Amino acid sequence: MRCRSLSPLGAVILGAGIGRRLGLGPKAFISYNGATLLDHAVWLMKTAGISRVCAVLPPGPDSAVLPEDILIARNPDADSGPLRSLILGLESLSATRELERVVVHHVDHPHVELEDLERLVEASLEDLPGVSRIIPSWQGQGGHPIVLTSSGLKGVMDPAALQASNLRELLQACGDAEYVDAQSKGVLLNWNTPREMGFVESEEF
């Protein structure tokens, strides 16, 4: 699947968090293997063949140079949560082209393996009636990133979406989840606190 263009597919990188618990500034700009978490997330999406990528970031100024060839949306309220950021990202992505599926990736999940992302994208090509999202699973536990199907996208873009308590509740109301076995525990790990950086299991959508 690498280097293949998947044109009805886009990606939203959720990176508007200001990283209070980490204490290192906005998560998107934290250094990781000589680059930033945002650089790594964009590399992951592009290498999987996803050309339309939008990163949702906090208001500037930015503390690092932004990756090229991506869209940028700004969430002025870091406390509004992933649902508001996702809506902003989807609005930016769909402004010029309608999408059928969208990968939703948290910028603070740098341990996701390319193979697991590719397996999710491949699963999203199947006919999955009644499914709103495709979720990687490691030893029975759901993780990230996820792929929103057309029904999931329709629900998130509905004007009433912001009335939902959170993104997980909204997606559950939109349809079922399809699980794909992951090859790495990286789908469960996110950067949360300095002590636990890289070894915190995330909450499933």
Structure write-up:
The protein is an alpha/beta fold and 205 residues long. 25% of the residues lie in helices and 24% in strands. The protein has helices spanning 37-47, 81-93, 114-124, 150-157, 167-174, and strands at 9-14, 31-32, 35-36, 52-57, 71-74, 101-106, 131-138, 141-142, 146-148, 176-181, 189-190, 200-201. A hairpin with a 2-residue loop joins strand 2 (31-32) and strand 3. Helix 4 (150-157) packs across helix 5. It is globular and about 45 Å long. It starts with 8 loop residues before the first strand and ends with a strand.
What coarse outline follows from CA principal-axis ratios? Answer: globular
User: What is the CA-atom radius of gyration, in angstroms?
Assistant: 15 Å
| Secondary-structure-derived class | alpha/beta
Helical amount: 10-25%
Mean pLDDT: 88
Q: Beta-strand level of the residues, as a percent range?
A: 15-25%
What oligomeric arrangement do these chains adopt? single chain
Number of strands: 12
Strand/helix succession: EEEHEEHEHEEEHHEEE
Low-pLDDT residue intervals, each spanning 5 or more residues: 1-5
Number of distinct helices: 5
From the N-terminal CA to the C-terminal CA, the straight-line distance is 25 Å
**Largest sheet, described in full?**
8 strands, mixed
Quick synopsis:
By secondary structure, the protein is an alpha/beta fold.
Highlighted features:
disordered N terminus, globular, 25% helix
How are the elements arranged and paired?
Blueprint: E1 9-14, E2 31-32, E3 35-36, H1 37-47, E4 52-57, E5 71-74, H2 81-93, E6 101-106, H3 114-124, E7 131-138, E8 141-142, E9 146-148, H4 150-157, H5 167-174, E10 176-181, E11 189-190, E12 200-201
Parallel strand pairs: 1-4, 1-6, 4-5, 7-10
Antiparallel strand pairs: 2-3, 6-9, 7-8, 7-9, 11-12
